[in-house]
Amino acid sequence: MTDPKSLIYNAKSSGRKALNEYEAKSFLAAFGVPICREILASSVDAAFAEAVKIGFPVVLKASGEKMAHKTEAGGVVLNVKNELEIRSEGQRLLEIPGCEALLVQEMIVGARELVCGLTRDHSFGPSVMFGLGGILTETLKDTVFRIAPLTMYDAKDMMSGIKANTILQPLRGEAAVDTDLLAKILITVGEIGLQFESIAEIDINPLKICRDGKPVAVDALIVLTG
Amino acid sequence: MNNTENLDFLFHPRTIAVAGVSENTNKFNAGLMFLQGLMQFGFKGQIYPMNPIGGKIMGMKIYKSVKDIPDKIDFVISAIPSRYTPQLMADAAEKGVKAIHFFTSGFSEIENVEGKHLQADIIARAKAGGIRVVGPNCLGLYCPSGGLSFNADFDKASGPVAMISQSGGNAAHCVQEGNDRGVLFSKVISMGNGADLNESDYLEYLTHDEETKIITAYIEGVREGPRFLRALKSATKSKPVIILKVGTSESGAEAAVSHTAAMAGSNQVWEGALRQAGVIRTSSIEEMIDITIAFQHMPAPKGNKIVVVGIGGGASVILADEFTNVGLSLPKLGDKLRKSLIELYPSEAGRIFKNPVDLNNFESSETFFKTMKALDQCEEADLLAIHIAFDHFGLISIKDKEFMIGAYLKLVGEIKREIKKPLAIILHSYASTQMRKLAYDAGKELTAAGFAVFPSIQRAAMALIKFISYHEERRTVARIK
After folding, report:
1. Which of B226, B253, B260 lies nearest to residue A124, judging by beta carbons?
2. How large is the ipTM?
3. Number of domains in chain A
4. Would you call B275 and A157 a contact, using CB atoms and an 8 Å cutoff?
5. A201/B260 CB distance under 8 A
6. A183 and A76: one domain?
7. According to the 3-state scheme, what is the secondary structure of B112-160?
8. Which domains does chain B have, with CATH numbers?
9. Nearest chain A Cα to B473, which residue?
10. What is the residue-averaged pLDDT of chain B?
11. Could you report the per-residue pLDDT of A188-220, keeping only the tens digit for each?
């Protein structure tokens, strides 16, 4: 496993202001945040080989040091089902400006998308956010904050604090969200904020809920301080 | 919290010198107002007026410098122009003054370099001289037990409520509305720029102040966020803390890269911080007073179920909606309780024995007592409320209403000792001038008798849900820990 400090050091020394998705998730995984199975592939052939190991369907994403907004650039393909699809889509992604490699991910199945993040408040310092994720984050703005460090009570109180808190209960055949595990993720993100002055912001969005109720980070961004 | 500073000396000075008292009583003179305010309020110690020109005021000698006063000076109130404050500070340090309150403005709040420099200068002098500073740019202290007030009209009786205010005007508003509605204060601090003593210092002190049982604050922003949060967490362990935090219109960071930073308006983060610290957040001064009244007059409820008794059928329905919408729980009355209530009355006609219990009118004080007694002893309710809709009687003349409501209020006034459960009184729906006056007078009377009185259904609902939630959360936290 990569040393999390070196991820920040490398990004900073090459003048970058953020860790890309792959680096951000490696960083978070080092602190126990569950992330989706994924691997970087440098070519279409390699991407296919990795997809076979992970098992179809997979998610294919354009990856590069400067690729912060993949979705807007058309750099995310969900539900890639076979060799034909991975080869044609993989070729297309590699042609997007800034794309240096292909990120092959297991396809997490689940209806619920949450968000967990970190920001630095000018009065209180590192603050953890929790709320509805994906496209709902900024449309519904159903999010709550707590100041790090968080207790287990704080983390659970955040969950009941969002308006749509019933989303954490069993839903359409999917299990109730594992709130203990979710709480641990929120607490961990707060700890990272306290421990790493060089991290300005974190987004884990979406933090997807698997059908069995386990949260998994499928996309993440870590913004570094100036 | 061993390093908490004991600020008792601020609130109980033996001697006070007021700088900036002019002999000329014809023009506006803040120094004179502070001087007269203290004297009329009944400050027991010695007061000395000061002014560089000297002279006499109300038979007292005006001293040219604090150094000339032939007495030890504990506290100085400065109402002089800011440019003279460094000299005052130097003299006060030499004299051995313990604290100075600067009503004087023209410091960091005016956002120019000179103001900031001047503030830094007087604070440096204060530190060197061992003087604590209240302000600058504020009304200062109101502490009835110390005989201190910036306004002689404030209540001279002490009470359990403290207030820290970053606005003098809002402090004055709170005290006046509070006094008018039966809220009595231990210490009110209009803290101004908080250049030396800031909100965290006062909060830490009030947490340990035996005179203070309830802490309220009007906050615009804080200097030491993490310390303030720690102080809040510590304060809420022993006392309810009710905060009006303004600045809700500020937006999130404009240059944010992540969703998180874009969502993080200062208000959202404050909301979380206050919640995390167990603080009750309010959105207006009126609501702050309403919640304070609940804490001052109502014992802690055992749960969240409330049973309401009142007169006014339509008003009872509106009340049920309002209460339910804010999250209050209006339990169904059990068969046994319903039966025992119905038996007290000649018939069910014109009355509704549900929750709210709508009595419409009252047979006798005995019946009313028995009704309230039955509710006080029932299993259904953790809290009780009585509501009276003043202008809800379409058939009755104002004169008859006055008589009927007057008789009812008398009954309400008499049950105080009998009721063990927390009880709220809601006097509402006064549309006519006559009823408004009657409601106001009745409110004062019931307040003086120690009842928690609320002026509308909505305000009672908001105050009660926050009061009840506070106690529920404390039970939850206690259970987890």
Report:
1. B226
2. 0.91
3. 2
4. yes
5. yes
6. no
7. CHHHHHHHHHHHHHHHHHCCEEECCCCCEEEEHHHCECCCCCCCCCCCC
8. 8-137 (3.40.50.720), 141-297 (3.40.50.261), 306-479 (3.40.50.261)
9. A157
10. 92
11. 999 999 999 999 999 999 999 999 999 999 999
